[in-house]
Write a structure and sequence with these properties.
Chain A: Keywords: Cell membrane, Membrane, Transmembrane, Transmembrane helix, Transport. Chain A: It is a multi-pass membrane protein. Chain A: Its main location: membrane. Chain A: Belongs to the binding-protein-dependent transport system permease family. Chain A: Pfam families: BPD_transp_1. The complex is a heterodimer of chains A (281) and B (393). With 281 residues, chain A is mostly helical. Chain A has one domain: MetI-like (MetI-like fold). Chain A is built from 15 helices and no strands. Chain A is flat. The C terminus of chain A is likely disordered. By secondary structure, chain B is of the alpha/beta class. Among the domains of chain B are: 127 residues, 3-Layer(aba) Sandwich (Rossmann fold); 114 residues, CBS-domain (Roll). Chain B is 34% helix and 26% strand. Chain B is built from 15 helices and 20 strands. Chain B has a 6-stranded mixed beta sheet with strand order 6-7-8-3-9-10, with helices on both faces. Chain B has a 5-stranded mixed beta sheet with strand order 11-20-19-18-17. A 5-stranded antiparallel beta sheet of chain B has the order 12-13-14-15-16, with no helix packed on it. The longest helix of chain B is centred in the middle third of the chain and has 18 residues. The two termini of chain B are 36 Å apart. The chains are: A mainly alpha (281), B alpha/beta (393). The interface between A and B is medium-sized, with 21 and 30 residues.
Chain lengths: 281, 393
């Protein structure tokens, strides 16, 4: 057995060397990237915090009604957000909401085009698939370390880790939706002279829309599951009280903060769930 | 000039068709090419021309290459070798070689298509589906709505324009498909087994509707079918395909009367002759009718007899020795007025269905007259032969 253990392959060192190399030469890129992202998130969060809590609650309830025409949903949102205010977690909730909205937007903006590309180029998907598997299975703490070093403490490494963890969902589901468009529909488009772009916008995306939306909802849930871990690298929000409760074995605080996370999850899930056209009839 | 013309078209599916073409030229068949090169031979050596206003039916079993050939007309299938010429503004454009802009123009303005499984977009309403081709072309919404209304009226679906496609029955869905194809006002209509997914009654009705529409619109239609009855009913000319090749290209009557080989004969043997066979095909010609003295004996028992002059004009008829009235058949609407024991003269182009109906009502053989002359007759024997023994008729 000695021959096997004598010469250890320095796998870990290669990776840390690689990270060091990136830091030595690209520190300014990471810094400005981190500053930019932090500015945008803080702007969004500050805006929501500047708004009086009751007004924001009313806006959410109104938005839900505008999207779904269901007073039951609006009532649910109203009551649950008032509960959050009552419990005293409003600021943390808003910060978490800001992080989630931002992470989800980033995932969708990057993930949906990647999914479309993968559906169109089988070769690209073959390369992409193991990377997605890796992103979803590698323990979060492992890449938390380099992201923390690269982007410093705070909301940005939390965001990056969240995006890494959540982005495979929209990519995979977009890929699934677009590659499952029935061939006759695409041929119908071609037969009437559609360009590639028209086929994408008028046939593939509308057909894949419910699947893509499912990917977005899933993405939101994955982002939420990262809230506590993001708090470990200093991202403010509901993860912080949960962590503190864990360290002080405070059951009451832990459950209160946890409940606020669940409330955000339900709220966002219900808001995003699209009643599909076939269901409507 | 033919509106659509195929010249020695070969279509081979596979990434590297060159070796398959060589094999094909050496006379290899489908299986050989598949085992030796892994390529599938879709169509081999197809030549065909379709004139303006014609309905040409490509007929064959599944896998015979008929759909493949059809889809070469609008470039959905790539032609490996040969020419597909589409007439456009007085020129013939070779589709496999034309550039993307021309191809797109032809698809938007010149050629439209109806699909077997309808291929309608389920998230769009009926009128949005019909306007699809116009939308791709960039027609304004107002203009589009006007055309869509007009085409929906044509297929009698104007009441349904705001429904979603899945709320319609199969027959109605295919009418939406037809309206979508008509909406671009393309002169060439490709129909890929459009009625195969429908049940027989609806299929029959849509066939009739298509023929009625065609009388008004005079499109050039290439129609794929695996059903000979449908092909014979709809097609001006029929190309029968087998094993990637066209084995016979002819009119319906000619295919029924002279099948080119056993494959065609098998098809013909399984068709429903009522709507296809014509009096002329089945009749016994005047010179073969048995004579006794001055009279022609029309049946085996000798009850029905006919006197004609030397120029074959009919003089009189007797049934069981009694003189009978001779009337002439003008069209299906007059069929009710035929009395028992009358003799009926008819034009030789009437369908077997009408011949049987006349025979049933009059009880006498049906006489065929052209330019005042008796040219032949059909009695029970000829009708039975028509049903049993088509190839020899």
């Amino acid at each position: 057995m000695e021959w096997l253990t004598d010469h250890k392959i320095p796998l870990g060192r290669w990776i840390s060397d690689g990270v060091d190399l990136l830091l030595d030469h690209g520190a300014w890129i990471f810094d400005s990237f981190a500053d930019g992202l932090a500015f945008l998130i803080n702007a969004l969060v500050d805006l929501m915090l500047w708004c009086p809590p009751l007004l924001l609650v009313a806006i959410f309830a109104g938005l839900a009604y505008a999207l779904h025409r269901s007073w039951k949903l609006s009532l649910l949102i109203l009551i649950s957000l008032l509960l959050v205010i009552n419990l005293g977690y409003w600021e943390e909730t808003v910060r978490t909401l800001g992080l989630i909205i931002f992470a989800t937007l980033s995932c969708v903006i990057v993930g949906v085009p990647l999914g479309i590309l993968a559906a169109h180029r089988q070769g690209f998907y073959t390369v992409l698939r193991p990377i997605l598997d890796l992103m979803q299975t590698i323990p979060t703490f492992v890449y938390l370390i380099p992201t923390m070093i690269m982007f410093g403490l705070g909301v940005v490494p939390g965001l990056i880790s969240t995006v890494i963890f959540a982005i495979p969902a929209p990519i995979r589901l977009t890929y699934l939706g677009v590659s499952n468009v029935p061939k006759p529909l695409i041929e119908a488009g071609e037969a009437f002279g559609a360009t590639k772009r028209q086929i994408l916008w008028k046939i593939e995306l509308p057909h894949a829309a419910p699947t893509i939306m499912a990917g977005v909802t899933q993405c939101i849930m994955l982002c939420l599951s990262m809230v506590v871990i993001a708090a470990m690298v200093g991202a403010p929000g509901l993860g912080v009280p949960v962590l503190r409760a864990l360290n002080t074995v405070n059951i009451a605080k832990g459950f209160e903060a946890g409940l606020a996370i669940v409330i955000i999850a339900i709220l966002l899930d219900r808001l995003c769930k699209q009643p599909s056209k076939t269901e409507k009839k | 000039m033919a509106v659509v013309e195929f010249r020695d078209v070969d279509i081979i599916f596979g990434s590297n068709p060159a070796p398959a073409l060589t094999l094909l030229d050496q006379g290899a068949d489908r299986e050989n090419i598949l085992t030796e090169t892994g390529n599938v031979l879709g169509v081999a050596g197809a030549s065909l021309s379709v004139e303006a206003g014609e309905i040409c039916v490509l007929m064959g079993l599944s896998g015979s290459g008929k759909s493949t050939l059809l889809r070469a007309v609008n470039g959905l299938n790539k032609v490996t070798r040969g020419k597909v010429l589409v007439e456009h503004e007085g020129r013939q454009i070779n589709l496999p070689e034309c550039d993307a802009v021309t191809l797109r123009y032809l698809r938007m303005h010149r050629i439209s298509m109806v699909f077997q499984q309808f291929a309608l977009l389920p998230w769009r309403t009926v009128s949005e589906n019909v306007g699809f081709g116009l939308e791709l072309r960039g027609v304004t919404k107002r203009e589009r709505n006007r055309i869509v209304e007009e085409k929906l009226e044509l297929v009698q679906l104007d009441q349904w324009k705001d429904k979603f496609v899945h709320e319609l029955s199969g027959g109605m869905q295919q009418r939406v498909g037809l309206a979508r194809a008509f909406a671009t006002d393309a002169d060439i209509l490709l129909m890929d087994e459009p009625f195969s997914a429908l049940d027989p009654l609806i299929r029959n009705r849509l066939q009739d509707e298509l023929l009625q529409l065609q009388e008004r619109m005079h499109k050039t239609i290439i129609f794929v079918s695996h059903d000979l009855d449908e092909a014979l009913k709809i097609g001006n000319k029929i190309a029968i395909m087998d094993q990637a090749r066209i084995v016979q290209y002819d009119t319906a009557e000619e295919i029924v009367r002279n099948p080119a080989n056993k494959y065609v004969a098998d098809f013909v043997g399984h068709m429903n002759p009522l709507n296809v066979l014509k009096g002329r095909t089945l009749m016994t010609t005047t010179d073969k009718i048995p004579r006794r003295a001055e009279e022609l004996i029309l049946d085996r028992a000798g009850y029905c007899r006919l006197k004609i002059d030397e120029k074959s004009a009919i003089l009189s008829a007797t049934s069981n020795g009694e003189p009978s009235e001779i009337i002439s058949f003008s069209g299906p609407e007059g069929i009710e007025g035929i009395q028992y024991n009358q003799f009926v003269t008819a034009p030789a182009d009437i369908m077997l269905r009408d011949v049987i109906e006349i025979r049933r009502r009059s009880g006498s053989p049906v006489l065929f007259v052209e330019e005042e002359k008796l040219i032949g007759m059909i009695g029970d024997d000829e009708i039975f032969e028509g049903f049993l023994n088509l190839q020899d008729s």
